[in-house]
Amino acid sequence: MSNHDLTCKHKMARQNGIVQPLLTDLYQITMAYAYWKSGKVNDVAVFDLFFRNNPFQGEFTIFAGLEECLKFLQNFHYSDSDIEYLMQTLPGNIEPEFFAYLKDLTCKDIKLSAIEEGSVVFPRVPLLRVEGPLIIAQLLETTLLTLVNFASLMATNAARYRMVAGKNVSLLEFGLRRAQGPDGGLSASKYAYIGGFDGTSNVLAGKMFNIPVKGTHAHSFVTSFSTLDDIHSVILRHAETQEPCNLLDLATEWRNRVSSVIDISPEEASDGELAALISYAIAFPTGFLALVDTSGLLNFCAVALALNDCGYRAVGIRIDSGDLAYLSVLARETFEQIAEAFKLPWFSKLTIVASNDINEDTILSLNEQGHKIDCFGIGTHLVTCQRQPALGCVYKLVEINGQPRIKLSQDVGKVTIPGHKEAYRLFGADGHALIDLLQRSSEPAPGVGQKVLCRHPFQESKRAYVIPSKVEHLYKVYWKDGRVCIQPKPLLEVRERVQSSLRTLRQDIKRNLNPTPYKVAVSDDLYNFIHDLWLQNAPIGELS
Amino acid sequence: MSNHDLTCKHKMARQNGIVQPLLTDLYQITMAYAYWKSGKVNDVAVFDLFFRNNPFQGEFTIFAGLEECLKFLQNFHYSDSDIEYLMQTLPGNIEPEFFAYLKDLTCKDIKLSAIEEGSVVFPRVPLLRVEGPLIIAQLLETTLLTLVNFASLMATNAARYRMVAGKNVSLLEFGLRRAQGPDGGLSASKYAYIGGFDGTSNVLAGKMFNIPVKGTHAHSFVTSFSTLDDIHSVILRHAETQEPCNLLDLATEWRNRVSSVIDISPEEASDGELAALISYAIAFPTGFLALVDTSGLLNFCAVALALNDCGYRAVGIRIDSGDLAYLSVLARETFEQIAEAFKLPWFSKLTIVASNDINEDTILSLNEQGHKIDCFGIGTHLVTCQRQPALGCVYKLVEINGQPRIKLSQDVGKVTIPGHKEAYRLFGADGHALIDLLQRSSEPAPGVGQKVLCRHPFQESKRAYVIPSKVEHLYKVYWKDGRVCIQPKPLLEVRERVQSSLRTLRQDIKRNLNPTPYKVAVSDDLYNFIHDLWLQNAPIGELS
User: Fold this and answer.
1) Domain shared by B353 and B405, yes or no
2) Which of A272, A419, A431, B332 is deepest in the core (most CB within 10 A)?
């Protein structure tokens, strides 16, 4: 069976297990019944799925989760046991015909338009537009939100880590043990990779999504060895000559030689640790990357040099405690001293991995201190999105039977933009995105080189003319007539899309501290449409 | 098929899909190979799974996730495709016999002891003790951590909400759309229920775990109606007489009568909203609970009184925006005025549900303001555990081949307590738990009425004598010889265990602000054992 077959098989097992129509809030089903009972079976609705604020005090978001949404639409079906459960759970006076209606429901009459997965997106611009029978479109709400909210939040978080870490540092996701359970961990691995991470420690995520998996050993491996007697075999065959080499003798000898170069005495180094490292090196001579603390540097260098005698080059070390900036600099200096002393230039380039409660701010601080880390392993803060653990996507009715709907609120930020709309991204001559523009679908698309009046949706005086050098229509139809119209791109392409999409954003919008907000505007026509509707719908209060 | 059969079937589908040996960090498998290669196949290890700090700035934690851990042990098996994937993923020079070894691995030689699920637990006291072959015990680490960490965090969070809300208020979990994906949402529903919530909006969680599901309608239901013409049918049959009642006529009439009593003019009430509420009432005459804003109160009361004319009692309202304390008081006063004016005493007792970004502090603040809310619907803050999105359980090697292991750290909080241990909870005469005591397994259990010296594990001078009135041995063997020895309790019993276990804690330990720490001690014997081992293992540094 090919790796791709395996991937599909396992994806499907997962999908079928959990993502199903009952993965929803009960009120969707009670509303469905009330709609059904009110004769609204043929009502046609348009819902927008969007968020109101960028996460992490940033000014951009990465849209992800579309592929999972399409699978959900494809598999949407109430099983017999689902219907049986609903009959037990809903009040006894529900008409039986409603359950027959549910039983036959599919998404064949739904049309789903979306922004491309992996794109940079902004508040108020719908990520998904769902059109079709009111009842079915309503029944999709919670599941679509669940699939988009966490995926987009994770991808955005990962992209932010990638930006602060820079292009030349590897990023590995190590968060499974702290994620929201098994599937939370899998989603975290997947969307961290999409957002720009290089790999994960999560083996099942590797298998399911074909993501590179990485890992070395834990501290318990070291503590399971006490003395040099715990080494089972000390023999490693030379990489080329196949001559047996005694790795223990070599490492012991090197430990003495190295200790004079790097000023750590062999007494400070633990024999149990040396035994562990030798055993690990014999198991993984081509992939020797060892977890060490300060005193462990001597043992590591000794084993790495012994491996070199056997024709293998060590990979490097992982530091998991202490002052990561200081320790990485110390380790790099040590490697350089050894490279110089023993004429092994490659030794100075050994990989230094750092883990231990790393977040965006830690990386920024390490950058300032001039660390020498090649790779960060990031867990808790990444997968729980500790800085903001939820993206607040909402799903709002904007049109019914061709009539626009507006949700009013005393909080102007919560007023929805009504009607069936299109979204365009307008680019400047230098290739950067200038503004996202929402228009009524009946309006002609903005033209390249033509002056477009862009208005703030709610502040009358905020207006600007824009002459775009390029116009991108943000929506494509991904699902129609019961079929996926555009196949979702493979993970790797979505991952590339994230980086190419981010490159179109000016640096000041992406920066960590006080970023400049990106503008989202409405056309003059849509502005007037919103405000006319607002006045029609808002009751005139009475001061008393 | 019975409901229980359905539940089991769906649990299993989920379990088999995701919780499997590959749901782990790669380093567990590389370590397994290094152990195997080092001849450690017959080494026997003891690992403790514990956390170091209570979450949410509290002084207690609820232990949950044990049932899932047992299922994981039961199903532990590398499939052919797992092995194939590992062969592709690990370095090419891995000996093929290792894969044959993995292929046959099961948990039959593992012994798992644990504290009862749903118990109050404290830092440093192991929740799980895993004994058995080093390699297998090591391979379980990440998955056990994943299953315990989020489950315990959620159950603890839910229990804290329950405490601040008090016994007489219902708590509903509404968080699916903001959870870490589908399974994050299911776990949140399950462990919120265990922690003391009364139900969830998540229908699949209801079906899988037999949790009560609750829900009404969303704002979009109201906005989908524009005018009174949108009502499909206005007829509801009387609950007893079966006479047809015209709910629209009745509600319109009541709207005029009520408006004079509660001082909201009918012009302020929206006809679209009235149409929506009438339609909802006709669909759910026995379960009429409506989402309303301030002006919606008039429409709600009109429909509720119309329903009363048809022999049905409305359930109540949900408030989802604005000042919840003020609005709940206003709504209660309105209900009381109507009860008085129309001689309908039950009307004053209508249920008031509040939702909208509620957290522990919001509830405390509402309590201070004297709210009139009967039920909270809680989403984002509950399911993401926003205040602290991860519990830091760790899994540490404490003994190998009968020899104790200690992990030293410059941070004394990270030093592990070595050896095979037992844990006892000592109770005072008033029934409250006094202290948790860790002992070496070779020591006799502390006796009721006997003086026990309890020592702080690391601070020499902190000691106390305790004379327990009751002693509870905290560990039971749940898994041995390849079988579950004690069947995990049904969800409802675990949920009751949480409350009974919390009742044994003094109030000052449970309070929200500046709680008193509960004491965890070691026996004198264990104290000396730790410190002797520490001195043997800690290198003597050099000041320079």
Assistant:
1) no
2) A419
Q: What is the pLDDT of residues A94-151, one digit of tens each?
A: 999 999 999 999 999 999 999 999 999 999 999 999 999 999 999 999 999 999 999 9
Least confident stretch, A29-33, A75-79, A265-269, A473-477 = A265-269
Chains A & B: contacts with CB separation below 8 Å: 377
ipTM of the complex: 0.91
Q: Note whether A351 and A405 are same-domain residues.
A: no
Q: What is the mean pLDDT of residues B346-359?
A: 95
* A401 and A337 both lie in a single domain: no
| Minimal-distance CA residue of chain B relative to A281 | B34
Q: Which residues of B touch A285 (CB under 8 A)?
A: 93
Same domain for A226 and A146: no
Classified as helix, coil or strand, B32 is helix
B24: burial class by Cβ within 10 Å (0-12, 13-18, 19+)?
A: buried
Same domain, A15 and A136: yes
Question: Chain A contacts of B23, Cβ < 8 Å?
Answer: 176, 182, 185-186, 202-204
Q: Domain ends where: A373, A403, A434? A: A373
User: Does the residue B250 lie in any domain?
Assistant: yes
Sign of CA dihedral B393, B395, B399, B404: negative
Q: Are residues A26 and A153 in the same domain?
A: yes
* CB nearest to A213's CB, from B47, B89, B217: B89
Rounded average pLDDT over A374-400: 93
The model's confidence at residue B312, banded by pLDDT at 50, 70 and 90, is: very high
Same domain, A361 and A434: no
The residue from B325, B347, B373 where one domain ends is B373
Would residue A318 count as lying in a domain?
yes
Looking at the complex, report in whole angstroms how far the Cα of residue B147 sits from the nearest Cα belonging to chain A.
Answer: 6
Q: Over chain A, what is the mean pLDDT?
A: 92
CATH number of domain containing B95? 3.20.140.10
Give A155-183 pLDDT, tens digit per residue. 999 999 999 999 999 999 999 999 888 88
Residue B12 — pLDDT band, cuts 50, 70, 90? very low
**Helix, strand, or coil (residue B473):** strand
What is residue B284's three-state secondary structure?
Answer: coil
Report pLDDT for B407. Answer: 84
- Residues forming a β-bridge with B318: B291, B353
Instruction: Evaluate whether residue A210 is within a structural domain.
Output: no
Do residue B34 and residue A207 have CB atoms under 8 angstroms apart? no
Residue B11 placed within a domain: no
Interface of A with B in 37-66 (CB under 8 A): 37-40, 43, 45, 47
Span B51-65, average pLDDT: 97
Q: What pLDDT is attached to residue A524?
A: 97
Q: Checking DSSP bridges between strand B483-484 and strand B476-480, what pairing results, if any? A: antiparallel
**Same domain for B452 and B338:** no
Give the model's pLDDT for residue B539.
67
- Find chain B residues with C-beta within 8 A of A397's C-beta: 220, 223-224
Q: Minimal Cα–Cα distance from B517 to chain A, Å?
A: 25
Q: Is B22 left (phi over 0), alpha (psi -120 to 50) or beta?
A: alpha
* Separation between Cα atoms, residue B76 and residue A219, nearest integer Å: 24
A429 touches chain B (CB under 8 A): no
Model confidence pLDDT, tens digit, residues B187-217:
999 999 999 999 999 999 999 999 999 988 8
| Residue A266 in this model has a pLDDT that exceeds 90 | no
E strands present in A23-161: 44-50, 61-62, 111-114, 120-121, 128-133
- CATH number of the domain encompassing residue B240: 3.20.20
The Cβ of residue A246 has, within 10 Å, a number of other Cβ atoms equal to: 16
Q: How far, in Å, CA of A98 to CA of A102, rounded? A: 6
Counting the structural domains of chain A, the total is 2
Which B-chain residues 234-293 have CB contacts (< 8 A) with chain A? 267-268, 270, 279-280, 282-287
Contact B34 A221 (CB under 8 A): yes
Shortest distance between the Cα of A434 and any Cα of chain B, in A, equals 31
Within 10 angstroms of residue B122's Cβ, the number of other Cβ atoms is 24
Partners of A357 on chain B (C-beta within 8 Å) are none
